[in-house]
Amino acid sequence: MKEGMTIIVKTITRFVGAMIMLFGAYIVLHGHLTPGGGFAGGVILASGFILLTLAFGKNVSSKILSQRAASGFESLGGLIFLGTALLGYAGGFFFLNLLPKGVSGKILSAGIIPVCNIGIGIKVGAALFAVFTALVILRIKPGKEE
Amino acid sequence: MIELYLLLAFMIIGAIVAVEIRSLLSSVVAVGVVGFILCVVFFILRAPDVAITQLIVEVIALVILIRATGVKKDVSAIVGGRREYFVIGVTVLFVVGFGVFSYWALSALPEFGSPLMSVSKDYLAPLAKSGAVNRVASVLLDFRAYDTLGEATVLFTAVVGAIAILRRKGRKTAEEEDKEE
Predict the structure, then answer these.
(1) Which residues of B touch A33 (CB under 8 A)?
(2) What angle do CA B141, B145, B150 make, to 5 degrees?
(3) Labelling B177: which of A118, B62, B91, B161 has CA 20 to 30 A away?
(4) ipTM of the complex
(5) A27: closest CA of chain B, how far (Å)
């Protein structure tokens, strides 16, 4: 197992990786309550995957989330967002907030905003990870790796 | 207010260093300095949402830049030689003209930071229609959700372009065709 960085980086990544993912999920899910939201949380999720890729090499990270799966997740997130927007036509308008608003301040509140946040989070995270793999990993031609 | 102008001055210095320095890695680091100072500026202006996004995107951008630019190779192929005085003159003329006109245009704006709440007071009203506590999220995803949809489309286009240009499959077929020839 020569891929990746030194054992120090790998050990720290084992400790920190799950926490980064958890923090990203928290930022996405609490986007309507605290600063942050779908975009910032999605970028944090992508940074967790990028840390895995840099520390353990591309084989480990592509087992968890391959580039094809990342493209799929990006389309899925975009479709969630667009579907939520189209759902508004049931009430008459594009992007109509027709889900129940709930009590302001609870996590299940604000109608379609958490759903949109989750969609954007999935989309942005997968998109940035796909761009990272395209720029960094695919750039290395097969046979020329060190 | 003085610390804001100090930080802005540091940002300008960092940008000039990023353009002028010869080493590519140092240039990337200077770009990172500009980004992180911008994050602090957003915090001082009390915009934590934008500050968080700026901080995280800056970190990712630095990682991608350092990793993707191939720092090991010294790519300091900056074109030196004689300066082109005509280009410099036109540029200075354009910048001066832009400054004069933007001074006229911007002097019509209200003062920096003065509470101008003609539209946004509807968004900030207590118990606004969306029901979200974070007002930024309610503006982004309810009142102005159409803009966010456009932004998501821009990101999607960027990813499609990057993968279409850099994917390995197209490269392999091109190489095989070269071998067949």
Answers:
(1) 132-134
(2) 125
(3) B161
(4) 0.73
(5) 10
| Total-model pTM | 0.72
Q: What residue spans define the domains of chain B?
A: 1-71, 125-181
Token look-up 């400054």 returns B99
Domain range for A58: 7-137
A51 Cβ contact list (under 8 Å, min separation 6): A13, A16, A17, A20
Per-residue pLDDT reduced to its tens digit, B147-174: 888 888 888 888 888 777 776 655 555 5
Contact, A122 vs A130, CB < 8 A?
no
8 A C-beta contact, residue B170 and residue B162: no
The whole-number average pLDDT for the span A58-65 is: 74
Q: Residue range A4-11: average pLDDT?
A: 81
Q: Do B156 and A127 touch (CB under 8 A)?
A: yes
DSSP for A98-119, written as a single string: -S---SBTBSS-STTHHHHHHH
> Alpha carbon of B148 to those of A57, B78, B86: distances in Å?
34, 39, 43
Quote the number of domains for chain A: 1
Angle CA B168–B171–B177, to nearest 5: 145
Interface test with B, best of A82, A135, A139, A140 (most B CBs within 10 A): A135
